[in-house]
Amino acid sequence: MTRSTAARATTTHALAAAARHLGGADRLVRSSTLLLNASYEVLCFVETPRALTLLVNEQVDVVQAAPDRFVHSRHLTLPWPTIVALRHYVLVPYDVQATTETASRSQVLARDKHTCAYCGGRGTTIDHVVPQSRGGLNTWTNLVACCAPCNNRKADRTPEEAGMRLLFEPHPPRDASALQRMVWDLIGQG
Protein backbone atom coordinates (compact mmCIF):
# COMPACT_ATOMS: atom_id res chain seq x y z
CA MET A 1 0.00 0.00 0.00
CA THR A 2 1.49 3.39 -0.99
CA ARG A 3 1.69 6.30 1.42
CA SER A 4 -1.12 8.23 -0.28
CA THR A 5 -3.36 5.14 -0.36
CA ALA A 6 -2.62 4.50 3.32
CA ALA A 7 -3.34 8.15 4.12
CA ARG A 8 -6.68 8.01 2.30
CA ALA A 9 -7.61 4.79 4.09
CA THR A 10 -6.66 6.32 7.44
CA THR A 11 -8.70 9.42 6.64
CA THR A 12 -11.72 7.32 5.74
CA HIS A 13 -11.48 5.41 9.02
CA ALA A 14 -10.96 8.63 11.00
CA LEU A 15 -13.98 10.27 9.40
CA ALA A 16 -16.16 7.22 10.01
CA ALA A 17 -15.07 7.14 13.65
CA ALA A 18 -15.76 10.86 14.02
CA ALA A 19 -19.20 10.45 12.47
CA ARG A 20 -20.07 7.67 14.93
CA HIS A 21 -18.75 9.66 17.87
CA LEU A 22 -20.61 12.84 16.91
CA GLY A 23 -23.91 11.17 16.19
CA GLY A 24 -23.74 10.66 12.45
CA ALA A 25 -22.06 11.79 9.26
CA ASP A 26 -24.53 14.67 8.80
CA ARG A 27 -23.12 16.54 11.77
CA LEU A 28 -19.54 16.00 10.58
CA VAL A 29 -20.30 17.27 7.08
CA ARG A 30 -22.22 20.31 8.37
CA SER A 31 -19.21 21.60 10.31
CA SER A 32 -16.72 23.81 8.51
CA THR A 33 -13.10 24.82 8.83
CA LEU A 34 -11.53 28.13 7.79
CA LEU A 35 -8.89 27.55 5.10
CA LEU A 36 -5.98 30.01 4.90
CA ASN A 37 -3.34 30.39 2.24
CA ALA A 38 0.30 29.76 3.23
CA SER A 39 0.54 33.54 3.75
CA TYR A 40 -2.35 33.28 6.26
CA GLU A 41 -4.73 35.13 3.94
CA VAL A 42 -8.32 33.93 4.23
CA LEU A 43 -9.34 31.76 1.28
CA CYS A 44 -12.68 30.17 2.19
CA PHE A 45 -14.48 27.75 4.46
CA VAL A 46 -14.24 24.05 3.64
CA GLU A 47 -16.17 21.16 5.12
CA THR A 48 -14.32 19.61 8.04
CA PRO A 49 -13.90 16.21 6.30
CA ARG A 50 -12.05 18.03 3.50
CA ALA A 51 -9.82 19.80 6.04
CA LEU A 52 -9.08 16.46 7.71
CA THR A 53 -8.15 14.94 4.35
CA LEU A 54 -5.78 17.85 3.64
CA LEU A 55 -4.29 17.40 7.11
CA VAL A 56 -3.69 13.66 6.70
CA ASN A 57 -2.17 14.27 3.26
CA GLU A 58 0.17 16.85 4.85
CA GLN A 59 -1.10 19.71 2.68
CA VAL A 60 -2.15 21.91 5.61
CA ASP A 61 -1.10 22.71 9.16
CA VAL A 62 -3.59 23.26 11.97
CA VAL A 63 -3.61 26.91 13.08
CA GLN A 64 -6.40 26.47 15.61
CA ALA A 65 -8.21 23.35 16.81
CA ALA A 66 -11.32 22.88 18.89
CA PRO A 67 -10.29 22.29 22.51
CA ASP A 68 -10.88 18.74 23.78
CA ARG A 69 -12.23 17.61 20.41
CA PHE A 70 -10.44 14.99 18.31
CA VAL A 71 -10.99 12.59 15.44
CA HIS A 72 -9.84 9.08 16.31
CA SER A 73 -9.04 6.10 14.13
CA ARG A 74 -7.34 2.85 15.02
CA HIS A 75 -3.84 4.23 14.43
CA LEU A 76 -4.31 7.97 14.42
CA THR A 77 -5.69 10.81 16.53
CA LEU A 78 -6.19 14.17 14.83
CA PRO A 79 -7.14 17.51 16.35
CA TRP A 80 -10.54 18.84 15.27
CA PRO A 81 -9.42 21.70 12.99
CA THR A 82 -11.26 25.01 13.10
CA ILE A 83 -8.57 26.91 11.13
CA VAL A 84 -5.98 25.35 8.80
CA ALA A 85 -3.30 26.91 6.59
CA LEU A 86 -1.96 25.52 3.34
CA ARG A 87 1.72 24.57 3.47
CA HIS A 88 2.33 25.93 -0.03
CA TYR A 89 1.06 29.27 -1.34
CA VAL A 90 -1.72 29.09 -3.92
CA LEU A 91 -2.17 32.04 -6.28
CA VAL A 92 -5.84 33.04 -6.38
CA PRO A 93 -6.76 35.30 -9.31
CA TYR A 94 -9.00 37.65 -7.32
CA ASP A 95 -10.25 39.69 -10.29
CA VAL A 96 -11.23 36.59 -12.25
CA GLN A 97 -13.28 35.31 -9.32
CA ALA A 98 -14.96 38.70 -8.86
CA THR A 99 -16.14 38.78 -12.47
CA THR A 100 -17.35 35.18 -12.57
CA GLU A 101 -18.75 34.46 -9.09
CA THR A 102 -22.50 34.96 -8.97
CA ALA A 103 -24.14 37.19 -6.38
CA SER A 104 -27.69 37.17 -5.09
CA ARG A 105 -30.01 40.14 -4.60
CA SER A 106 -29.75 39.99 -0.80
CA GLN A 107 -25.95 39.72 -0.93
CA VAL A 108 -25.66 42.78 -3.19
CA LEU A 109 -28.05 44.84 -1.03
CA ALA A 110 -26.06 43.87 2.08
CA ARG A 111 -22.73 44.70 0.43
CA ASP A 112 -23.99 48.13 -0.68
CA LYS A 113 -25.76 48.75 2.67
CA HIS A 114 -29.06 49.31 0.80
CA THR A 115 -27.62 52.48 -0.76
CA CYS A 116 -28.50 53.33 -4.37
CA ALA A 117 -25.34 53.36 -6.47
CA TYR A 118 -26.70 56.22 -8.61
CA CYS A 119 -28.32 58.74 -6.22
CA GLY A 120 -27.26 57.61 -2.73
CA GLY A 121 -30.88 57.07 -1.65
CA ARG A 122 -32.38 53.90 -0.19
CA GLY A 123 -31.63 50.99 -2.53
CA THR A 124 -34.34 48.34 -2.50
CA THR A 125 -33.72 46.73 -5.90
CA ILE A 126 -30.62 45.67 -7.78
CA ASP A 127 -29.40 46.89 -11.15
CA HIS A 128 -27.18 45.27 -13.75
CA VAL A 129 -24.55 47.87 -14.69
CA VAL A 130 -24.23 46.12 -18.05
CA PRO A 131 -27.83 45.09 -18.80
CA GLN A 132 -28.65 41.39 -19.01
CA SER A 133 -29.95 41.95 -22.55
CA ARG A 134 -26.37 42.85 -23.50
CA GLY A 135 -24.74 39.91 -21.79
CA GLY A 136 -24.45 41.38 -18.29
CA LEU A 137 -24.16 38.67 -15.66
CA ASN A 138 -25.27 38.33 -12.03
CA THR A 139 -21.72 38.89 -10.76
CA TRP A 140 -20.29 41.03 -7.96
CA THR A 141 -18.73 43.48 -10.43
CA ASN A 142 -21.92 43.92 -12.47
CA LEU A 143 -24.60 44.27 -9.78
CA VAL A 144 -25.36 47.29 -7.58
CA ALA A 145 -28.10 48.28 -5.15
CA CYS A 146 -30.50 50.74 -6.72
CA CYS A 147 -33.65 52.65 -5.80
CA ALA A 148 -36.74 52.00 -7.94
CA PRO A 149 -36.79 55.47 -9.61
CA CYS A 150 -33.13 55.20 -10.69
CA ASN A 151 -33.64 51.61 -11.84
CA ASN A 152 -36.61 52.69 -13.99
CA ARG A 153 -34.70 55.72 -15.34
CA LYS A 154 -31.68 53.64 -16.31
CA ALA A 155 -33.90 50.90 -17.77
CA ASP A 156 -32.12 48.68 -20.29
CA ARG A 157 -29.15 51.00 -20.85
CA THR A 158 -25.63 51.38 -19.54
CA PRO A 159 -25.08 54.18 -17.00
CA GLU A 160 -23.32 56.24 -19.70
CA GLU A 161 -26.21 55.88 -22.13
CA ALA A 162 -28.68 56.86 -19.39
CA GLY A 163 -26.57 59.88 -18.39
CA MET A 164 -26.09 58.44 -14.90
CA ARG A 165 -22.90 58.11 -12.89
CA LEU A 166 -22.05 55.35 -10.41
CA LEU A 167 -21.25 56.76 -6.97
CA PHE A 168 -19.09 53.69 -6.25
CA GLU A 169 -17.69 50.80 -8.23
CA PRO A 170 -19.22 47.39 -7.62
CA HIS A 171 -16.80 44.95 -5.99
CA PRO A 172 -16.79 41.54 -4.33
CA PRO A 173 -17.81 41.66 -0.67
CA ARG A 174 -15.11 42.41 1.82
CA ASP A 175 -16.52 40.06 4.48
CA ALA A 176 -13.19 38.28 4.61
CA SER A 177 -11.56 41.36 6.15
CA ALA A 178 -13.09 40.62 9.56
CA LEU A 179 -11.95 37.01 9.34
CA GLN A 180 -8.52 38.17 8.23
CA ARG A 181 -8.24 40.48 11.27
CA MET A 182 -9.18 37.55 13.50
CA VAL A 183 -6.41 35.45 11.90
CA TRP A 184 -3.81 38.19 12.39
CA ASP A 185 -4.92 38.59 16.02
CA LEU A 186 -4.62 34.84 16.53
CA ILE A 187 -1.11 34.81 15.06
CA GLY A 188 -0.13 37.74 17.29
CA GLN A 189 -1.21 35.76 20.36
CA GLY A 190 0.66 32.62 19.28
From TrEMBL:
It comes from Luteimicrobium xylanilyticum. This is HNH nuclease domain-containing protein. It comes from the Bacteria. InterPro entries: HNH_5, HNH_nuc, NA-targeting_endonuclease. Residues 103-152 form the HNH nuclease domain.
